[in-house]
Amino acid sequence: MSHKSFEEISIENSEFGSQNTFPYYLSRKKGRRRSSLLRKKCRLVRRVVRKSGKSSIFQKNDSFRLYRYCLDLVNTIINSQWKWTMLFLSVIFILTWFIFACLWMLISIENKDFDETNMEPCLGGVQGFAGYLLFSIETQSSIGYGNRYINHYCPEAIFLMCVQIGTGICICGSLICIVYAKMIGPNRLHSTNCFTKHAVINQRDGNLCLIFRIRDSGGRYGCLTKVSAYLVQKKRESLADDVALKSIKLEAFGILIWPVEVVHVIDETSPFWDLSAKDLIVKRFEIIVEMEGTCATTSLPSKTITSYLSREIMWGHRYQPCVFYDKNKKSFIVNRNFFNKTEEVLTPLCSAKRLQEVYMDLSSSENNPFTSTENTNLFSSPSTTLSPVTVYDDDIKKAYETSYSSSSDDEDDGFTCEGLCMKELSTDNLYKSLDNFVVENAKTKKTIIDEHHCKYNETAF
């Protein structure tokens, strides 16, 4: 049986429908498949603070929420969007105009200004409610009355005019202050401009460090800059959704004159002491970062906040330099395009706790590959090779002295180390230098070096 296309079936049905005086078409409605990128964007992520700095915490069943917002009306207007602020300003002015227009109309009715026989009206040149509304607008904005006027023998009208002028000044002054505070305040995307999109973990001076980069894009945090970080993670012993908030110690970063890196050294007191690259993928936590500072020009304090999820922390990466020196301009140039860019760097995949254990094993005498004894078990492999090792001057000198003193006086000093004791070596250079050692057989003793320690295990990275 031959399969017909949808076009052929549609043509046949249309011919059948023309004979039976009604059209009938067959078509298939294809569902639109969203791309993986779109599905990724639409995926909901549980986080306490969004990247823009807006909090995701809401009070449930709070019956006094609207009342508290009304009590703190100034901050409510400042923190609201511009469209709601402008709508509030328009409503306030229109309400005051109509309220005072009604009051002016009541004064005219009380003084019988609508009576044609009254030769001395309280308000002259005003006819109808539109006239009273124009009179109210002209009084509050002080643009002049024109043909409309107030007679001097109407004290209640004079008092109401003073009240409306004072009310208009207070309303204008308050709204101008609100608009000014909203204009000089940081915008909603200021958090994304001050912090990098991703944090990184790499090795510095032998220690694993959590690093993120900050900058002062608007000049609002130049003075008294302070950065704080907190870890939000679910409690292990709690069955409910209770979370624990822990403070993270940060190193001093200096002056915020250009983008700087804020470093957290992962040590014994760090909550990431037993966190490895595998745990970073499996575990779920959030790091909230807060930056405070004062503007040097306006002396106004500012504050911005953002957060990093566990999946937004890149293990084994570092930030690319974004500050360059221009010899022609004789000044430093900050390239904003490199602010969020990272590059891969060799980093241990184990945790900082395990890394310290490896360092202790390699520095101990039992697992020291430099020791010259007849027992080859002393040169067995360390407990792990998941991390690069940095050997410093004192350790190498101590190992060299040990190997030198192990030989007797009548033996030849054939065990030499050229240039090894005068500089720092990484694991790669260390094992390559071991291949260059001159090992000679002595008369009564034989120095053995395990070949396993002379090879660099590339699986460490």
Give the structure's gist in a few sentences.
Belongs to the inward rectifier-type potassium channel (TC 1.A.2.1) family. By secondary structure, this protein is of the alpha+beta class.
Provide tags for this entry.
ion transport, elongated, Immunoglobulin-like, disordered C terminus, transmembrane helix, voltage-gated channel, 461 residues, 4-stranded antiparallel beta sheet, 4-stranded mixed beta sheet, Helix Hairpins
What does this structure look like?
Keywords: Ion channel, Ion transport, Membrane, Potassium, Potassium transport, Transmembrane, Transmembrane helix, Transport, Voltage-gated channel. Residues 195-358 form the Inward rectifier potassium channel C-terminal domain. It is a multi-pass membrane protein. Residues 49-185 form the Potassium channel inwardly rectifying transmembrane domain. GO terms for molecular function: inward rectifier potassium channel activity. This protein is an alpha+beta fold. It folds into 4 domains: 1-28, no CATH class; 75-184, Orthogonal Bundle (Helix Hairpins); 190-344, G protein-activated inward rectifier potassium channel 1 (Immunoglobulin-like), CATH 2.60.40.1400; 352-460, no CATH class. It has helices at residues 6-19, 36-42, 65-71, 73-79, 82-110, 128-141, 155-184, 190-194, 277-282, 352-363, 393-405, 427-435; strands spanning 123-124, 149-150, 199-204, 207-214, 223-234, 243-248, 260-265, 286-294, 301-309, 313-315, 317-319, 323-326, 331-334, 342-344. The strands form 5 sheets. The protein has a 4-stranded mixed beta sheet with strand order 7-4-3-10, with no helix packed on it. It has a 4-stranded antiparallel beta sheet with strand order 6-5-8-9. Strand 3 (199-204) and strand 4 form a beta hairpin. Helix 6 crosses helix 7. Mean pLDDT is 73; it is low at 16-31, 36-42 and 371-461.
